[in-house]
Amino acid sequence: MSSPFTGLLGQLIRHRGVSGCLVVGERDGMIVEANLQIGVNGNAFAALSSSLYRKARRSALAAGFGEAGFFELTAEAGRVCAVGRNDLVLIVIAEPTVNVGLIRVEMLKAMELFA
Amino acid sequence: MTDDIRALSDQLAADPSSLAFLPLGEALRRRGQLDVAWKVATRGAERHPQRADAHDLVARIAIDRGDFARARAEWETVLSVAPGHAAAQKGLGFLRFQQGDLAGAAELLGAALAADPDDQSLATALGTVRAAMLDGDRGAHERETAIIAAPTGLPPEAAHDAQDARALFDEILADQPQTALLIDRDGYVVAGQYLTADGRDLGADLAAQLSGVSDEAARAVKYLGLGAWKQIVFESEAASLAMAPGGDGVLLVATPRSVPLGFVRRLLERCVMRARLWLETGE
User: A6-114: CATH homologous superfamily?
Assistant: First the structure.
């Protein structure tokens, strides 16, 4: 059975260096749909990444910068990109060498699905 | 709600007189749940008025809420209960510095550093305060003598030259409407500033609101096994924000939304290098 997000996640996971992509509830960190390579702990990424995105969004609001858009965390062993709307967050897990510019464009385009 | 917070909440509910309010209030503060943290901490301090750490927690939450008067009162209470309390001296020192009382700030930060010599943020802050003091009315020779004669044992290389820390990134930022702040692990601004159109410095407010993001990031990468975090970049309606570890805290850059993200990253890298040089050599 496919959801409105199936095609989107299928496109994102095909990018070189992407190891997982998820649509997650921002408030509860629960996975709505995910497309993950074997070995990626989807539940942990969903919970922690959505919490991090929520924190960034609230901090930006509190600081007077308005609603948050694209978010990216770079660490030694990987990247986490996120963008959200209407209590849903689209998360992409990737290697450090991934083409972030391309991923960002696709994620921002995908926000139309979240409207 | 994380498991830690849930467990501490349960512990406090089962025994309201327990000291669980201390880690619980701190965990809530770090998560940015300031209203709940405030209730937990103030109730705890009321139950345990002789505990310095309870008043210190209330003071730090008050800072995050922008209530500097209450923070000052709480830290003064800490010092009355536990004279020489390093965290209280540090907090009061930063408050004095923000008010322009450089001599008072230096005295308190010096005492705090003497109590906690390993706190690099204190050495940095004290160097900044002393440089600001000496820059006002002394010559280079006197400055050097005073730094060497510092009673706290601060090594000369840790004391900064007479450079205004607030202007540390001005050369990199040029005249563009962009901001860089070096924030210590407690959320205090060590260098840089965030000036509004009417000339007010809102750096402390910005640091208090945004420093929690890096705490959350550190927690996330730890549990996800991603190694140390290197950079955070996020866009908002009005600004693009970028952060990276700097000193024992975080370096934050904010630019207008119109600035390309690639440029924001480059700006962040240059500011990190500038801050590193300043922290290591004072130049």
Answer: Dynein light chain 2a, cytoplasmic (3.30.450.30)
Conformational region of residue A33, where left means phi above 0, alpha means psi within -120 to 50, and beta covers everything else: beta
pLDDT score for B277 = 86
Confidence of residue A83 (pLDDT cuts 50, 70, 90): very high
At residue A66 the predicted structure's pLDDT band, cuts being 50, 70 and 90, is confident
Alpha carbon of A72: minimum distance to chain B alpha carbons (Å): 5
CATH code of B165-281, in short, is 3.30.450.30
Q: Chain B closest CA to A42's CA: distance in Å?
A: 10
Q: Of B183, B200, B209, B235, which to mutate for an interface test with A (greatest number of A Cβ within 10 Å)?
A: B235
Give dist(CA B238, CA B73) in Å, integer: 36
Confidence band, pLDDT 50/70/90 cuts, at residue A79 = very high
Contact B30, B57 (CB under 8 A): no
Provide the CATH topology of domain B3-124. Answer: 1.25.40
